[in-house]
Amino acid sequence: MASSASERGYLPDGARSVKIVVLGAFGVGKTTFVGTVSEMRPLRTEERLTRAGELVDDVAVDTKSTTTVAMDFGRRTLAGGIVVYLFGAPGQPRFAAMIRSLLTGALGGLVLVDTRHIDRSYASIDLLEEAGVPYVVAVNTFSESPGYSEAVLRDALTLPDDRPLVFVDARTMQSAKHALVALVTDILRPAGSHTP
Ligand SMILES: Nc1nc2c(ncn2[C@@H]2O[C@H](COP(=O)(O)OP(=O)(O)OP(=O)(O)O)[C@@H](O)[C@H]2O)c(=O)[nH]1
Ligand SMILES: [Mg+2]
Q1: How much distance in Å is there from the Cα of 193 to the middle of ligand 2?
Q2: Which of 7, 108, 116, 119 has its CA 20 to 30 A from that of 151?
Q3: Which residues contact 181 (CB under 8 A, 6 or more apart)?
Q4: What number of H helices and E strands is found in the chain?
Q5: How far is residue 127's CA from residue 97's CA, in Å, rounded to a whole number?
Q6: How many angstroms does the Cα of residue 33 sit away from the middle of ligand 1?
Q7: Which residues have beta carbons under 5 A from ligand 2 (an ion)?
Q8: 9-23, 68-82, 174-188: lowest mean pLDDT where?
Q9: In ligand 1, which atom is closest to the CA atom of 68?
Q10: Among 120, 124, 134, which Cα is nearest to 164's?
């Protein structure tokens, strides 16, 4: 007799699952975020950054030696049995087609932002708006990055009033989970209250 999914240990009975995509520019901490919140060992597709890549990518960061070339994948179970499947997108603009395909079936997007390069977040927000996927902006608080008020950040991002903005340290479980809960809460809001 075939065993149920819960007997095989995939999902608890009655679980609701949610696919979300973590987006943002190169090096904003997407892979770090998925790794921090995932309760399973995350899938990663990291490749070494090379001098050759400098010809096509703006990857001027001295703290990183690898970059995501396809996606990250992780899973987190939240209170109430909601299972969140996290897909971390690649950050470089030439991967836009890959990001569009990751957005297929996604119920929400988490856009990580580094305040050193706010303008590099526009492409991610545009992709989400284009796909009609609701999103939350999470400002990753790198110690080297300038601090701005929420109002200034909203203005710089031209963020609609109904899109939540949170601050996160992608390396810290508590903080990353808070950002994830903000997104899932937004996704589970009553139908009709989303504008994108
Ligand atoms: N100070 C600080 N460093 C961070 C934080 N999050 C990530 N980092 C570091 O910043 C770098 C960015 O890491 P990744 O997680 O690979 O970034 P990414 O967005 O996945 O990068 P790509 O896939 O190449 O676009 C790593 O060296 C992290 O250790 C943070 O919240 N604070
Ligand atoms: Mg990455």
Answers
A1: 31
A2: 108
A3: 78
A4: 5, 8
A5: 10
A6: 8
A7: 30-31, 68
A8: 9-23
A9: 23
A10: 134
What residue type is assigned to position 186 of the chain? D
**Bridge partners, 137 (sequence order):** 111, 165
pLDDT tens sequence across 131-143: 999 999 999 999 9
Count Cβ atoms below 10 Å from residue 149 Cβ, excluding itself: 8
**Predicted local confidence at residue 1, as pLDDT:** 45
Domains assigned to the chain? 16-187 (3.40.50.300)
For ligand 1, atom 24: residue with the closest CA: 67
Measured from the alpha carbon of residue 43, the closest ligand is 2
Query: Which atom of ligand 1 approaches the CA of 91 most closely?
Result: 25
CA–CA gap between residue 83 and residue 193 (Å, rounded): 23
Mutate to test the pocket of ligand 1, among 23, 32, 44, 168 (most ligand atoms within 8 A of CB): 32
Count of residues for the chain?
196
| Residue from 115, 178, 172 nearest 143 by CA | 115
